[in-house]
Amino acid sequence: MRSLLLTRTAIALVWFYQGLWCKLLGRSPQHQKIVATVPFLCSSQAYRAMMVLGSLECVLAAWVLSGFRAPEAALAQTLLLASMNAAGLLWARNLITDPVGMLLQNFVFLLLAWVAAGQLGSYAPAT
Fold first, then answer.
1. For the chain, which terminal residue's Cβ has fewer other Cβ atoms within 10 angstroms, N or C?
2. Angstrom distance (rounded) from CA 78 to CA 107
């Protein structure tokens, strides 16, 4: 279904941007600063953690795009994003300029992920 592929592509592009561009390529220093606030990570561990997160986000992008086991992919996205949001608010609150906006945007993004997984709403045309 074309609209489902378009939805999965949009979700995957967000994960690729966040993982590849922002973290792996280091184009968003803010991400490094936030990860560096984790109290039990030294700076080299924080850098490696950011590389792992970036790689995981790229894997998620490919998984979402594939459509394979979509509900499980939506659950993985939810768990990862909820964990990152919680950690960011707990340890890097002063670096997040708009926490309410972040949570709202991520809530809408996850709603879209669950729709793409076929768990919310329907793509069937109304009759």
1. C
2. 9
Single-letter amino acid, residue 19: G
What token pair was written down for 18? 């966040």
Cβ atoms of 85 and 76 within 8 Å: the answer is no
Residues 87, 93, 99, 102, CA torsion sign: negative
Contact 116, 70 (CB under 8 A): yes
Residues in contact with 30: Cβ distance below 8 Å, sequence separation at least 6, in sequence order = 95
**Distances, alpha carbon 95 to alpha carbons 61, 62, 68, 99, in Å:** 26, 29, 36, 9
Q: Would you say 19 and 53 are in contact if contact means Cβ atoms under 8 Å apart? A: yes
Contact predicate 34/68, CB 8 Å: no
Per residue in 14-58, pLDDT (tens digit) is: 999 999 999 999 999 999 999 999 999 999 999 999 999 999 999
Query: Do 10 and 64 contact (CB within 8 A), yes or no?
Result: no
Q: Copy the structure tokens of residue 23.
A: 């973290």
Of residues 64, 63, 35, the one with CA closest to residue 50? 35
Which residue do the tokens 């590389």 mark? 51
